[in-house]
Amino acid sequence: MKVSDILRVKGNTLYTVSPDEPLSRAVEVMAEKDIGSLVVMERGALAGMLTFREVIGCTVKHAGVLSDIQVREAMDQQPRTCTPQTELDEVRHLMLESHARYLPVMEDNVLMGVISFYDVARAVVESQNFENRMLKAYIRDWPVGQEQEQASEPHL
Q1: pLDDT tens-digit profile of 73-115?
Q2: What is the pTM of this model?
Q3: Quick one: CA dihedral 96, 123, 77, 84, positive or negative?
Q4: Which of 19, 48, 53, 88 qualifies as a cystine partner to 72, CB 3.0-4.6 A?
Q5: Following CA atoms 125, 11, 53, 107 in sequence, which dihedral angle do they give, to the nearest 10 degrees?
Q6: Closest Cα to residue 88, out of 122, 111, 113?
Q7: Tens digits of residue pLDDT in 22-48
Q8: Which of 65-74, 108-117, 122-131 has the lowest average pLDDT?
Q9: Cα Rg for the chain, rounded, in angstroms?
């Protein structure tokens, strides 16, 4: 399974923010949309990633006062990314190694979407459930007499 498979199921709604916007406004958008991250875009290019992790860190650093802080100060300026062609196993390892809960999906410097750790976990569970159903159907439909033919074949 690839990242493009997750994006196809997830849809293509993207929420972005400018690095010069007030952090308080970005937090409002995250709360209104019930999302855990915003992609920070500047002049059409990926500039960073803002998640609640960065927001909490910045809130603590500034003793809870966010009124004069811009997104630029809080964002992760070098977020890990993946492409639509990235295999799901590689994404899982990347997210675990870097403790990233969200990955922007980029193709030729164009933002294609964002996948979350939740999206990846759901895709893995759905894939395993499908495989389990197929295996159970295969076992249930095993041809009668097939096991006797296989047992009588010589082993080399």
Answers
A1: 999 999 999 999 999 999 999 999 999 999 999 999 999 999 9
A2: 0.78
A3: positive
A4: 19
A5: 100
A6: 122
A7: 999 999 999 999 999 999 999 999 999
A8: 122-131
A9: 22
Residue spans of beta strands (DSSP E) within the chain: 16-17, 37-42, 45-51, 102-107, 110-116
Find how far residue 6's CA is from the centre of its chain: 8
Amino acid, res. 109: N
Q: Which of 101, 131, 96 is nearest to 116 (CA)?
A: 101
What would the DSSP string read from start to end of 61-121? HTTT--TT-BHHHHSBSS---B-TT-BHHHHHHHHHHHT-SEEEEEETTEEEEEEEHHHHH
Tokens of 114: 């964002």
Give the whole-angstrom CA distance, residue 5 versus residue 8: 5
Which of 7-21, 79-93, 117-131 is the least confident region? 117-131
Residue 63, CA atoms < 13 Å, CB-side half-sphere: 0
Sole residue written with tokens 């966010």: 66
Q: How many CB atoms sit inside 10 A of residue 54's CB?
A: 21
Element (H, E) at 134: helix 117-140
